[in-house]
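Good morning,

Attaching, inline, the backbone tokens for the sequence recovery test we're adding to the shared suite. The designed sequence is right after.
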């Protein structure tokens, strides 16, 4: 058997660096490798993946665009470019690439699933459903697509069908969503028993926190909330001034970006008379991103310091590894955002770039309101207490991601613009 060539050895070294998630060294090795072996597509691909994984999305896109042009029949390169486009909200371009990947390889499970997720971003639910069903046809135990298909049925409040798929999956929040199904199917005893089981398994997240808070408040059940008891006591309102590193000029650039249609707006059924950006704005190569991220990170540390003595689960179990995920929401006169919580977050927040003026009877117009009342969950005829945060322009409001919240409708010629974000655990 012939000894591996120097090119093969160097490619294996690059592969090892990527698999160890040492992306800084992988990028350097990848740049050196592609310079010496410019026709080796696998080396270019690993360089692109390393850029993508380290948040250098612009560089990753350049690499994958080069690969798809030089290797137009590679389903892998088309899929990688499509997934990278979607990360920064370029959904339509991502779909074009992913469809091409599936045309080249009709059994490419990862591309089919990614296409389903992209369709969800633009509210093409039937196309998304077909994609996930195709994955399960190819792999009946595919954990991710079982989860995503179950979530599609949750969106339609078909709790029985959702439970059927979620029960078979251990991916993501599948077991927590199964708990949600038990509540919505009116299986109270099963809910309490299953909650005890998953608590013993150490499952703690905002979805479970919101479910238990709903049951505590509206059913007067004396059970411990593993995520956060009395979440309203953990709402924080601060203020970001220009001296904190985010100027009015940067705020204007952020708003201009939102209005420029550089990325696609996300389909958002909860949002009325407004627009929401797609992808993670923290990954953009834009002048406002670095300053904004620095300000948000400082505010998160202020939040943790304020509640440093808390025994609540979400603070005691603060994720060791997390990412910041951010998006913009603009709402026009007569609009609002319906009640919801952030099941994949940990700590959530909004930085208010522009708020409509409110006074007199309409003093709460456009503000953020909090409740323990899950809008899709049975309430037994009871109504939860509500708290409205007193916010103004350049305020930042942070709260446990389990807490349900909505915006108070308003009528004003002024636009309501906020930058929303989640601290998202990396699992």
């Amino acid at each position: 058997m012939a000894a591996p060539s120097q090119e093969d050895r160097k490619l294996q070294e690059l592969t090892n660096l990527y698999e160890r998630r040492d992306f800084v060294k992988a990028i350097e090795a990848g740049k050196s490798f592609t310079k010496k072996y410019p026709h080796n597509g696998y080396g270019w691909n690993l360089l692109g993946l390393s850029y993508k994984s380290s948040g250098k999305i612009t560089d990753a896109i350049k690499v994958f665009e080069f690969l798809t042009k030089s290797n137009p029949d590679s389903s892998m390169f088309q899929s990688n470019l499509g997934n990278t486009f979607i990360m920064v909200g370029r959904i339509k371009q991502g779909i074009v690439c992913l469809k091409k990947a599936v045309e080249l390889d009709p059994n490419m499970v990862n591309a089919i699933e990614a296409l389903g997720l992209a369709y969800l971003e633009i509210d093409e639910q039937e196309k998304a459903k077909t994609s996930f069903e195709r994955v399960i046809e190819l792999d009946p135990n595919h954990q991710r697509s079982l989860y995503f298909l179950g979530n599609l049925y949750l969106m339609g409040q078909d709790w029985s069908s959702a439970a059927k798929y979620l029960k078979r999956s251990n991916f993501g929040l599948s077991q927590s969503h199964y708990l949600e199904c038990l509540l919505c199917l009116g299986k109270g005893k099963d809910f309490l028993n299953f909650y005890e089981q998953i608590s013993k398994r150490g499952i703690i997240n905002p979805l479970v926190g919101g479910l238990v808070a709903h049951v505590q408040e509206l059913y007067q059940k004396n059970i411990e909330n593993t995520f956060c008891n009395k979440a309203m006591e953990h709402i924080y309102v601060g203020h970001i001034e220009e001296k904190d590193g985010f100027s009015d000029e940067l705020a204007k650039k952020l708003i201009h970006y939102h209005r420029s249609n550089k990325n696609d707006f996300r389909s958002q059924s909860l949002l009325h008379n407004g627009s929401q950006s797609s992808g993670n704005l923290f990954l953009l190569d834009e002048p406002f991103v670095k300053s904004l991220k620095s300000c948000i990170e400082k505010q998160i540390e202020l939040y943790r310091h304020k509640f440093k003595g808390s025994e609540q689960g979400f603070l005691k179990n603060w994720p060791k590894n997390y990412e910041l995920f951010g998006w913009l929401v603009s709402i026009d006169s007569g609009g609002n955002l319906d009640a919801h919580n952030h099941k994949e977050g940990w700590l959530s927040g909004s930085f208010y770039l522009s708020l409509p003026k409110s006074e007199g009877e309409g003093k709460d117009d456009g503000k953020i309101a909090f409740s323990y009342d899950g809008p899709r969950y049975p309430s037994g005829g009871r109504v939860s207490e509500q708290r409205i945060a007193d916010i103004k322009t350049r305020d930042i409001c942070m709260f446990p991601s389990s807490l349900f919240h909505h915006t108070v409708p308003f009528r004003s010629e002024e636009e309501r613009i906020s930058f929303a974000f989640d601290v998202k655990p990396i699992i």
